[in-house]
């Protein structure tokens, strides 16, 4: 299931609780302490911008900027400003998190371990 058009959401969970960052919700950041904290605590100081998908909104503009740069990079024969290798590194972090959950041990992802 997916929100329309989609959400900008990051969820991090640990043994002591979790944190939820959702750019499309107010409050944007909520901290959850312990396995039975279902309400969470709002983290102050993170502005909510409900105009994300309207022209001029942060998300709308960021998508246009990224796509424009990618096309220009292809035409100009240069690497794009956004390194797609960062996505591979992010997946390594997620895989390490799953490994840590299964083993109960700290797992390190070396810097630059993109491929």
How is this structure best described in words?
This protein has 115 residues and is α+β, with helices and mostly antiparallel strands. Helices cover 33% and strands 16% of the residues. The chain is built from two helices and four strands, in the order ββββαα. The protein has helices at 58-76, 85-103; strands at residues 9-13, 17-22, 29-33, 41-42. The chain has a four-stranded antiparallel beta sheet, with no helix packed on it. Strand 2 and strand 3 (29-33) form a beta hairpin. The longest helix is centred in the middle third of the chain and has 19 residues, at 58-76. The mean pLDDT is 82.
Shape: flat
What is the CA-atom radius of gyration, in angstroms? 18 Å
Largest sheet: 4 strands, antiparallel
Q: How much is the average pLDDT?
A: 82
Question: What would you call the structural class?
Answer: alpha+beta
* Residue share in β-strands: 15-25%
Q: Percent range for helical residues?
A: 25-40%
Distance between the termini: 30 Å
Number of E-type strands: 4
Summarize the structure.
The chain is an alpha+beta fold and 115 residues long. The chain has helices spanning 58-76, 85-103; strands at 9-13, 17-22, 29-33, 41-42. The protein has a four-stranded antiparallel sheet with strand order 1-2-3-4, with no helix packed on it.
